[in-house]
Amino acid sequence: MKNWLHLSAEGLAAPSDEWPCLLWRAAGDCERMRLAEAAQRLAGQPVDLLLPMEMCSFLRTEPWPSKRRPDAQAIAFAIEEQLGEDLEGVHVCAGRRDRQGRYPVLVTHKARFRALLHLLAALGIQVRSVKVDANLLLDDSTDAVDWLDRRVVGGNLHVALSPQGLKAIEPLLVEPLQWLGDTDSRMLIEAALWSGHGQSIDLLQGEFGRARRAWPWVTLALAATLLFMVDWGFKRVRIQTLEGQAQQLYAQSLQRFQALYPQQTRVVDLSAQLDALQRQGATASTTALAHLVWLTEQVIGGGDVDVQRIDFQAGDGWKVQLTTSSFNELERLRERGQQSGIPVRIGNASKNGNRVQAVLMWEQSL
């Protein structure tokens, strides 16, 4: 029997055995309960854990130059600039290569993920795999699924937002979203859980991978002896091969460095010079889209507001053309911004019929 345990986003603030969750025992058999109750219901049965997208970030690498799958460290270095965080503190998990030659990647904080696994183990919950809800949805999907009181989108977005937040960013998307109702959302979710999760990324890999059964001592000793003999016999060949590859890689790196930074005519220490240049040109880790989501959730999403147009210009920030019910509502938008630490300004306000038109501005340079 396959069991799914879906943790809600609201429990992320204070993880405990009171964490609200969904327990799926089969298609059509789903119950809301607390984590402690789910542990009692499972009674030691293995479970497939489903995390909320709010606990992870989703990225894609650039098209990979080699057909051979890179290791986790290579993928981590490839997305480091997009991620904007210290790689030592995050857990990076890659999926299968797509048709464009890119690798989809899920990233979560190591300490937070480790604490979650310890909590589940303490409750006696045996985790068989760990997936993310938005990552279960089809790669080419533009469906906005109603899931645990928020809208979840997979595909190229991989986001989970309130309906108001998702409505606000929809004008920025290349393709319009398909807003599914309760029945269609339930059907799509169950199809993803019971038949469509083969391409999804399992977070139980790398240092969090499932432990394998230990080999018997005799088998282990024979295997170690064989490996030592093979290593000793081909040691020289391997060293020569690695030296040749290292020289080739350094030459390629030097060529690319000189193409990116032609003003660096003298290269003494390639790694140190590259690090210095990257530190000089480092940008803020939050993206324009993340700023817009924050603005929407903290300011716009809480009022009686219709968004007409959203513009962004580097150095000037966001400008949101909107209509609302009154000038008082505009003042409430400005006050919510101040309370949330978002210094918004209201401009070009005018009365048009029974609605007030205005421009909300947030001068946030990236």
What does this structure look like?
It is a single chain. The protein has 366 residues and is an alpha+beta fold. It has 2 domains: 206 residues, Nucleotidyltransferase, domain 5; 75 residues, Gyrase A, domain 2 (2-Layer Sandwich), CATH 3.30.1360. 37% of the residues lie in helices and 25% in strands. The strands form 4 sheets. It has a 5-stranded mixed sheet. The protein has a 4-stranded mixed sheet with strand order 11-10-9-12. A 4-stranded antiparallel sheet has the order 13-14-16-15, with helices on one face. Strand 9 and strand 10 form a beta hairpin. The longest helix has 26 residues. The radius of gyration is 25 Å and the shape is globular. The relative contact order is 0.09. It is found in: Cell inner membrane.
Q: Which structural traits does this protein have?
A:
366 residues, alpha+beta, Gyrase A, domain 2, 2 domains, four-stranded mixed beta sheet, 16 strands, ATPase_NBD
Fold blueprint:
Blueprint: E1 4-7, E2 20-26, E3 29-34, H1 35-42, E4 46-51, E5 57-60, H2 72-83, E6 90-94, E7 104-109, H3 110-122, E8 126-132, H4 133-136, E9 143-147, E10 150-153, E11 159-161, H5 163-169, E12 178-179, H6 182-194, H7 217-233, H8 235-260, H9 270-280, H10 288-298, E13 305-313, E14 317-324, H11 327-339, E15 344-352, E16 355-362
Parallel strand pairs: 1-4, 4-8, 9-12
Antiparallel strand pairs: 1-2, 2-3, 5-7, 6-7, 9-10, 10-11, 13-14, 14-16, 15-16
